[in-house]
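Table 4 source record.
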Amino acid sequence: MICKFVESPILVCGKEVKRVREKFFLVLDFPKELARIEIDTSSFKKLVVSLDFTTYIQVIDGVNGDTDKEGIVLNFRVKRLCNGREEVIKEYQYARGFFFASISDSYDTRDSFSFMLCDEVFNCKNKCCKYSVEFSGFEMIGGGGQLDELVIEDSSISAIVQELC
C-alpha cells in the first residue's frame, strides 16, 4: 500500500528554555530542559512529526595534574507529552575526546550538535503535542571527576508536521 500525505505540511518553531553554564561541576541537577516545542494537532488525525534540534556545546578543561581524563560523553533525551502521557522517545549522545600533550595543557572546544527525528503520532486527543529536549547527564571517560567549564547554549527546535493517510 502506498501512503499519500493528505494535508499540506506545517512548520512549527519552538524555543530555547534553558542554557547550561557550569564551572567545576561534579554533580548537576538533572535533567535540564534545553528546548521545547508545542504542536497544535487539532486539524490532524494521524500525523508524522519531523523534529530538528541544534545546539552549541563548549568544553573547557585543563589537565591540572589529572592526566587520566580522556574525554566526556553528554546524554540527551527527547520527550513527548501527548494525552497526558509523557515518554522518552529517543536518546542521543555527544562524545568528545581530549588530548593533552603535557601536564600544563588546556582544552577549549566549541561544537555544534544536532539531530533529526521522525515520530508518528496517532490519536492525540488533547489537540496539543509537546516535545522537549533535555540534557540528562554526563560521564567522564578515563577518570577525572570534573571539567573546568561546560556550556550548552543557543538551542533551537523546529518541526515539520504532516497528516498521514
